[in-house]
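We treat protein structure as text, and this decision shapes the records that our systems exchange. The tokens are whole numbers drawn from a learned vocabulary of local backbone shapes. Below, we set out a record of this kind in full and without editing:
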Amino acid sequence: MNTNTIVILNHHASINKYGSRGRHYLIARDLSKMGYDVKLIASSFNHSTKKYIHNDKLRKDYVNNLFNFISIKTLPRYKNDLGRLINYFHYVYKTINLKFYQSPDVIVGSSVHPFCWISAYQLSKKYNSKFVIEIRDIWPLSIYEDVPKLMWPFINISIKFLERRYYNKADSIIVTAPKADKYLLDNFNVDQDKIHYVPHGINIEEFDNNNKIFVRKLPDKFNITYIGSLSKSEGLENLLDLAKQLRNNKEININIFGDGTEKGKLENIIKSNNLINVKLYGAIDSKYVPNILSNSDILWCGLKEREVFKYGISKNKFFDYLAAAKPIIFHSNVKYTPIDNIQSVHKIPLNKSSKEEVLELYNLSKTERIKLGNIGRKVLETNFTSLVISEKYFNSFNL
């Protein structure tokens, strides 16, 4: 039995009990099944719902006998960027004072925000643990497009300070973007040997089980489907442009599942252009996602031009789409992703319409589309299951 203890600090982490989960839930669960003792530490304030998941100052949930989820109450309850920043610093203050009965072997500071690196490093010094940084967003590139310009100077100074201070102190650095190592090498002269690319992944058994149990009916047509955030980054206006070009084909239907800041804009485009071939469903429970994707004919994904994407991106959506074994349209200029060079993925540059590729897939037989989709599924099964990703994650610690 392995006895390594791993602590992961992720401000926005969650577990099934509280209605959501993500990368670290899957990784922690897999590592605990391998025999490692894992503690996942988050704030009890849910960024999406703007509500606390409980009212305790600190709560420990036992996912299993080796996986503890610890949620800490951080203040304030925020709705704006300043409150969010204060909440982040309160998380640092609370986590830096945590006490563990057994010294961890590894402490990971995972950046939704990089301020958690402060507490991860201090804890690693206190307990003589390995200090690991995980970069899921390249700051400050990602935040610049999401906050008022007035805050940019402060963000630039503080983040650059954290990067210069902690990248070289880290024993290991985990990145999810395929070319994030270039950012680290070019800007901070980080030792290449301690940078580890560990993309997102998927629990494929759970996907397949939900596909059998939770059914949601789609229109009896040729269905092009998007599931995800309705945000500016996703370039969903390009999907609606596709709908305009296909409006005369009564057999093709476009389904959009999700919620976000662009919902009103999309609704206006659909209404003003009388796009009766588009249905906007709103957000759905994640348990329905596998069946919806698996009963679609084409899965659509798009990303707009953003400075932060120059080093590539790894989106959870990619792996859900591959698991569904369907052809994928990726309408984007992003150069580096885990789905590059997969035969079932049709990548379309932003200056070109995806109509031609869609009609090409539409004119294939169902059998041919299934065969094409299965190519992507096999790539997923080999490279991106949660177990494969969890093993890479652990190996990056170099214990």
In short: The chain has 14 helices and 16 strands. Residues 366-383 form the longest helix (18 residues). The mean pLDDT is 92.
